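pinging the channel bc i need a second pair of eyes. not urgent but kinda urgent?? the chain im working w is below, pasted from the shared doc
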Amino acid sequence: MSGLSLDLDGDKETRPDYECLGGALVVEIKSLEGDPSERLENVVAPAKERENWPKFFGEWSSQAVLKNLPEDEREALRKRLFDRLARAIVSHIKKANSQLTHFCKGRSGVHLRLLVLINEDFMEYDPNAVGFAVQRELRRTDARGLPKYAGIDAVLYLTERHATQAQGRVTFPILVVHGPTVAQNRVALELIRRIAERWAKWSSGMEALKTPADIEGFVPVTENPKRLRRQDVWARDYKHRPYMRKWSDEEVIGFWDFTSLMSLLAFHVDPPKRLPQESVTELMEKTTHLMQEFAHRGIALDRLKPTKERNEAAIGKVALGPAVQEWLRKQVEHMKQE
């Protein structure tokens, strides 16, 4: 868009990055470079010491953990996590507002003052969280009731760290957050539309989708190493085809009960019936799938404690004959059942 770099020697901190279309568009680019994971871990560290912190297998998202906390603690921790995550975004907005305001002061013909936020590396900066943080900041006002960030007309968030499936293809987000006055600026809205379309064309060679995607549907993109452990392949495959996603919690936990019983047959030193190796491998694969589903739903270990009723229901699904079922009943008698 006829961009002219404004990063002159000795002036990189006070000026925006680009002036485009003869000054109609002024752009400041900020990259989310600091790893937020350690800062977020510091927030949850005190809560992890409490008795009500859920116990679980593998790695869980913060949302899965929060489901298991009392409502008052859940909301307080959610707010602290979000505020800590948003710090870098708020810092970039403040600095960009100063740069754009200083450069555009007294200049005529500026129709759009744009901040572009870029995330290349960190899954924590998902489009939903970034969009909410940016909206919250752009709506802030000063003591006189005027927009606090009047130097920013809009914020564009670009990332290929998150993606979704839309119209049969992998799709990356192009998130636009309008400032408080841009809705009345037709030229600014047209410029934003052109930028989004040209970015999609340049980055993918394809037109931008006309139908907005569900912002909560974007998930982190992970790179597959050249070699994967078998359980990592199973976990990846389940993420691509989460067949338990539409099941109820009771159905998922019931499947866990069944696989637990089958594991007794698979790994006991003297079972009444040996399972073939392919069945043992399939059992291990299903257990990995269950770990993935537990992490998605936030099903903690306390919900998996066996009960007599659930054990009996699971035994009834073992179609290997009465002798095997009776052997399983004797095995579970040694377990602590509720």
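so The chain has a mean pLDDT of 89. and The longest strand covers residues 112-119. — does that match what u expected or am i reading it wrong
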